[in-house]
């Protein structure tokens, strides 16, 4: 984990928000699900790299802060999947 944890959740939330916005398609206002899923996987990787074992807890915190965000739920699910794969 990084030293300045106090401000980190806001920085990560901002990063996730940017990734989520970049995944939105301009065609017919619908998200390109494949790209959104890839971006969620990238964001999950960042959380896991940054927080290690606490990544799932942090993903859930971000999801609670953005309850309407499908992207936040996708990131939480991806972090959970990766955590299950790494367990013996």
Overall description:
The chain is globular, with a radius of gyration of 13 Å. The longest helix has 19 residues, at 33-51. With 88 residues, it is an all-alpha fold. It has four helices and no strands. Helix 3 runs antiparallel to helix 4. It has helices at 8-22, 33-51, 55-65, 70-86. Mean pLDDT is 76; it is low at 1-5.
Tags for this entry?
0% strand; disordered N terminus; mainly alpha; 88 residues; single chain; 4 helices
Helices, by number, come to 4
Average pLDDT value? 76
The backbone outline, from C-alpha atoms, is: globular
The residue ranges in which pLDDT falls below 50 over 5 or more consecutive positions are: 1-5
Total beta strand runs: 0
Largest sheet: none
Structure classification: mainly alpha
Q: What is the N-to-C order of secondary-structure elements (H for helix, E for strand)? A: HHHH
Relative helix content: over 70%
CA distance, first residue to last residue:
23 Å
- Strand residues, percent: under 5%
Radius of gyration: 13 Å
Topology readout:
Elements: H1 8-22, H2 33-51, H3 55-65, H4 70-86
Helix pairs in contact: 1-2, 2-3, 2-4, 3-4
Summarize the structure.
By secondary structure, this protein is mainly alpha-helical. It is built from four helices and no strands. Helix 2 (about 35-50) crosses helix 3 (about 55-65) and helix 2 (about 35-50) packs across helix 4 (about 70-85).
